[in-house]
Amino acid sequence: MSDNREVNSIQNNPDPNYWRSFEELYRNEKTLKARHHEFAEGVTDDFDPNENLSGISRRKFLALLGASAALAGVACSDYRDKGEIVPYNVKPEEIILGRPNFYASTCTACANSCGILIKTREGRPIKVDGNPEHPVNQGKICAKGQANILNLYDPERLQQPLKKSSTGFDNIEWKKADSDIIASLSMAGSKEIAIVTHTITSPTFLKVLEDFKAKFPTTKIYSYELFNSSARNSAWTKCYGSGNFPLIKWNEAKVILALESDFLGVEGNRVENSRMFAEGRDVNSKSFNRLYVIESSMTLTGMNADYRMRLKPEAQFAFVMSLINELNRKGAISASIASNYSLDEFVKKNNLDKERVNHLLNDLIANKGKAIIHAGDLMPENVHIAVNILNELLGNKNLYRTDSASVNLLNLSSLDEVKELTDKMRNNQVAVVIHLDCNPVYHFPNDLNYKELLTKVPTVVTLTERMNETAQFSSYILPLNHNFESWGDSKTRTGVISLQQPVIAPLHNTRQKESILLTWISTSPDTYTETLYHDFLMKNWETNIYPTLKSRIEFKQLWFGALHDGFALTNEAGQNFSSINLTGLNLTETKFNSEAMTLVLRESYQVGDGRFANNGWLQELPHPVSKITWDNYAAISHNTAKALDVQNDDLVEVSVGDRKLTLPVFIQAGNADNTITIELGYGREFSGIVASGVGFNANTLLSSKPEFSQWVYTNATIIKAGGKYPLASTQEHHAFDNPRIQDLHLKRHIIQEGTVALYEKKSDFIQEHRPKELESVYTPFQYNEMKWGMAIDLNKCLGCGDCIVACNVENNVPVVGKDQVLKSREMQWLRIDRYYSGSPDDPRVSMQPMLCQHCDQAPCENVCPVVATTHSPDGLNQMVYNRCVGTRYCSNNCPYKVRRFNFFNFRDHFRDGYQESSILTLMFNPEVTVRSRGVMEKCTFCVQRIEEARSEAARKGIPIKGTDVKTACQEACPTNAIHFGDINGKDSEFYKYRNHELGYYVLEELNVRPNVTYIAKLRNIHTEEL
Amino acid sequence: MDRKKFFLSASLAAAGIALFKYIPFTSARKNFDSKKVEVKINPLAVSRKKVGEKNVG
Questions:
Q1: Digit-coded pLDDT (tens) for A850-907
Q2: Are residues A851 and A994 located together in one domain of the fold?
Q3: Residues of chain B positioned with their CB less than 8 A from the CB of A124
Q4: What is the spatial distance between Cα A922 and Cα A125, in angstroms, rounded to a whole number?
Q5: A567, CA 20 to 30 Å: which among A92, A307, A983, B44?
Q6: Nearest to B20 among A74, A563, A918 (CB)
Q7: For position A345, which CATH number holds?
């Protein structure tokens, strides 16, 4: 079948025909052939006896056998002593062996400062979850926040202060380092002391910096973020006189128009955004918002759109102005500012779908005051201004939150201010540069020459947790405490201040940055004590914060109570917005060539701006859209790929001006033509064994003089560079058999979806597809008491992957590395299958978390020769690890492809045994067996949590209830898409989903009786048919 | 095999095994365990026993 015929047949097919990749869409022979095989090609190559032992003689075999026996004898005679397990001599009062403790604290993985609850066992932090009482994130936390625990135990953390020498770096005592640096600060004279930092969210740390400035008056603070809201901020300053832009009531919006905005992915507080957005898509209340996304690159937000259109970022301003003009023409608003723009012409010129644009217009008119238009952080100021005007004209200010507003303690430095710093460095006007837990050598555009200019500064001090690009060029490197070892506070919202407390004493000879600065302020290295910052923080709260809280309880009571809770509520007024000031607003359009190539630089979903590049769990988390792990790449549309004659993995050279980068290409369905999307945060150097050399440093494409936006560059070029670079994508791994070549007589409704209109008309339309239950020759086991089950609401699942990381942390799932992912050997127990339907230009996207379905008639159980996989009386499909002999029959027989085999002891195999270092093993959950080579594993429904709840119920003498247990994935899901409980517990929330009219089971026709119910996705479009 | 060659092979094998015992293959790998760490709790932090507990308003 030709490509075009195939695409046409898909477009015309009313029953969406799902495809996972272009290889599948275009019937790539190799891909289809792979579907017949349970295991990916080459997955057992390392272990093929025919290949490795062919042609061996009897003599050689016996010699090898003898040598092996001798070596084994030697090796076994020196069994590694892993130490003794002894009880506490003096048991700490708060520790009960075998019982966890929880500490409320604040996450510092990004500037959102979510409230977290850290679970510790015998003093070791082992799991991070959101703090359920925290008013902002309400018990949820993103993947980075959860994976941050790995950073605490990272064996490559700096453990001692270092001083640069002629041969590298030498260890130095803290006292010596402090006195040297204090001397440099005191001798700065009239020269500047520059402090470079990320966003400051702590009011007490800000006070430390003010004290520092008072002590050393030539100090100047430069704060920056690689990705920030500076354009939105300046637009709001111009429109409303304040840069504090409002938070949005996503849950109340009936229509959302996202313009190049990934508010569900990487912009703003995405945990909060996701929760509120999903509240507006509720099958129980039959309330559904409608999401329009107009963007250049396929994003997480775009994947969840009801209507999505592709548009180059430079055209967004003209689009908003054209909308204003058309709404004015239709009499919906009164505005003459956009009379030069025509929506019809715009639609034609940019090849937009006229029908979808009309739907958008009608929805905006019909939902005045109940719709919100949101432009992304990557957009320049004029787009934000135009959006502010449109929201104001439509009365959409109703959806700006007035109960809480974002708080900006210290404005980020502009690019001009950073240029001023580099000019001063060039002119020898800077005596000391202090990098506070940031990495400007990696983050700043190369044309600022920051790295070279550091050599002109006499004293460069970098405070960091681990070695990085900036530390390499520093005179002193001072090791910092991890977040979990530090005190702090944070204020990012009105109405609440969060507290951060150390849940463990520092593991190494490290200090927190505030204590280091306080020591320098005192000018005496002897001032430092372990409680230095704790005392300062407490005093600042007592004198400056406590009086503003107007609390009726005395300070110490409030302090300990707030530490227990993780936050204190404040009595602050919300935010009110005056009318927009239209005078002097910049509404001029940036002209661009629509045929030229545009480069869009975005934040990585996995490793952020590179701060988490050392974190294996995040590196191995499949990209939510492309499913690529361990790399970044240039994403282009399939039309652009055809024009360039490139295929996936081909190397291309991307250039903007004189800046060039060679990297592999990935053809992304739904990308705008002539647009290249690259995610930043990769290509790290000097950053340890996990981060260094992974991906490509696209920061080299940044410019300090951007014409359009800091992250969008017009007039880019892309050429085929020759050569290939394999990208490790999990997209085609563990795919179900192809319905068109197998079981033709059955329609496999793996993804089932419909429309809101159809659901309103016929609420049980999904049930039509469900097969009849087959009679069994056996009497089925009756689960009269407890039986565990799960329900996943696909209307709320956004495909973010937070659940995957939660599962990894809870269940000690190892990182395997890129080479193993390429061989389909990733170990994650939970994957999110992503399907496209429709045309490759404008595909619809469906997500489906896939995990062990704990089938009642599990086909894996029947084939295990050693009874290593069995069924429990409460409905769990169990694995007995120490029985498993690794036949992999169970995996071969699993229709859902959810079993994972330990082809190696991956802890030993990955990066020189990085995961076997004694410090990293402190992170393991002691309730979950650490699996070794040759053992099969899979989702257990967090059986350890079930057993914990059961033992707690037994202790209380009451029966266990389904609501007593929350699985790790359920706890982490920011949108509450996952429900877990007892299928017989009729009064639970889970029961409603288990028996929902939109509920179905995947591959139900196989009669394996799975126990994970999927709630079919509804698309809120204007027709009944998809 | 003559007597001389046998003893040479045997002694080389013994030396190799002895050497392997003291310098195993893993010595070529990066050592992540340069220092033993001690786990201590911070006495000034405030813990709780349950997830859903709230103390003050």
A1: 999 999 999 999 999 999 999 999 999 999 999 999 999 999 999 999 999 999 999 8
A2: yes
A3: 39
A4: 8
A5: A92
A6: A74
A7: 3.40.228.10
> In this structure, what token pair is assigned to residue A972?
């982490």
Domain that includes residue A452, residue range: 162-228+410-486+509-553
Amino acid making up residue A633? Y
The verdict on a CB contact (< 8 Å) between B47 and A99 is: no
- Give a yes or no: residue B52 inside a domain: no
Q: Which parts of chain A have pLDDT scores under 70?
A: 1-16, 35-36, 38, 45, 47-55, 75-82, 584, 737-748
A284 occurs within a structural domain: yes
Of the candidates A124, A561, A919, which has its C-beta nearest B55's C-beta? A561
Residue-range definition of the domain harbouring residue B39: 1-43
List, in sequence order, every beta strand (DSSP E) within A800-911: 831-837, 844-850, 869-871, 877-879, 900-901
> What is the distance between the alpha carbons of residues A661 and A716, in angstroms, rounded to a whole number?
11
Report yes or no on B50 lying in a domain: no
CB A469 within 8 A of CB A76: no
DSSP-derived secondary structure for A364-409 = HHHTTTSEEEEE-TTS-HHHHHHHHHHHHHTTGGGGEEEEEEB--S
The reply to whether B48 falls in a domain is: no
Contacts of B20 in chain A (CB under 8 A): 71, 74
The three-state (H, E, C) secondary structure of chain B, written as one string: CCHHHHHHHHHHHHHHHHHHHHCCHHHHCCCCCCCCCCCCCCCCCCEECCCCCCCCC
Q: What is the pTM of this model?
A: 0.90
Helix (H) or strand (E) holding A67, with range, is helix A58-76
Q: Do B42 and A504 touch (CB under 8 A)?
A: yes
Residues of B with CB under 8 A from a CB of A: 13, 17, 20-21, 24, 26, 29-30, 32-42, 44-57
ipTM comes to 0.77
Q: Could you tell me if A431 and A374 lie in one domain?
A: no
Q: Is A494 within a domain?
A: no
